[in-house]
Amino acid sequence: MPIDPSTAIGAELPAASFSWDPSDVQLYHLALGAGASPLADTELRYLEDVAPQVLPTFATVAATFHATEAPRVSFPGVEIDLAKIVHGSQEVTVTRPLPASGKATTTTRIAEVWDKGKAAVIVQESTTVDVDGNELWQSRSSIFARGEGGFGGERGPSESRELPDRAPDLEVKTTTLPQQALLYRMCGDRNPLHSDPAFAAAAGFPRPILHGLCTYGIVCKSVVDAALGGDAARVKGFRARFAGVVFPGETLRIRIWQADGYLIVDASVVDRDNSPALSDVVLTLA
């Protein structure tokens, strides 16, 4: 079915109610590589049994953490083959540090649909509240659908943040695990693009790729650990554009520039001549 922007834009998706507990938080952090230094206090605070600190990027998986089936891209006015989809961008803004357990409801609307010619971009915005109606976080994300453009819609903006014209204040390298994608699947994203070699080949990749949101979480954690003393409560928001693929086992080069109230970040893949992984990355300080 071709994309119908007149139907899609502004459409509200069914509300999702869900809950999470410290074990979910621990597994999420382990799926990002937490605990690689098992004697370090900065690592163990992510893995405490009763009240682990929670990275704000947990918000990207909380609602679907216990899903066991591959996701579907089926919205009002939008019906797309999963093999054509990659994550375009992600932004999360938290009202306060996320609790280690809770119950919440997320409401989502399709905010924008852009026609890029050979591809389409679908932008979603959501708000998550606790059982008392207090806001926990907001998120904005986009998906990039290859081969789904050309429906006559607006092309949309093309914005990119320039990196500072100076050496980074900090630079770290984080190596992903060969089984990183298989571990991250346990956080509810069962897209076979990240586990099935045949599916990945049909989608045009030589082997399964790492989830974009896994890279997103790994980079956020690396920045928190390197620049914020491992204190996730200092993060107000985290946004990034997915600029390239990462294969499990590759090493990320993460450069960090300090600014007034936020950090500018760039992430690239060391193994492939620093090819882009995440760009337009900004961590907003609480």
Automatic annotation (TrEMBL):
Residues 156-166 have a biased composition (Basic and acidic residues). InterPro entries: HotDog_dom_sf, MaoC-like_dom, MFE-2_N. Residues 163-260 form the MaoC-like domain. SUPFAM superfamilies: Thioesterase/thiol ester dehydrase-isomerase. Gene3D superfamilies: Hotdog Thioesterase (3.10.129.10). It comes from the Bacteria. GO terms for molecular function: (3S)-3-hydroxyacyl-CoA dehydrogenase (NAD+) activity; 17-beta-hydroxysteroid dehydrogenase (NAD+) activity; enoyl-CoA hydratase activity. Residues 147-166 are annotated as: Disordered. GO terms for biological process: fatty acid beta-oxidation. Residues 18-147 form the Peroxisomal multifunctional enzyme type 2-like N-terminal domain. Belongs to the enoyl-CoA hydratase/isomerase family. This is MaoC family dehydratase N-terminal domain-containing protein.
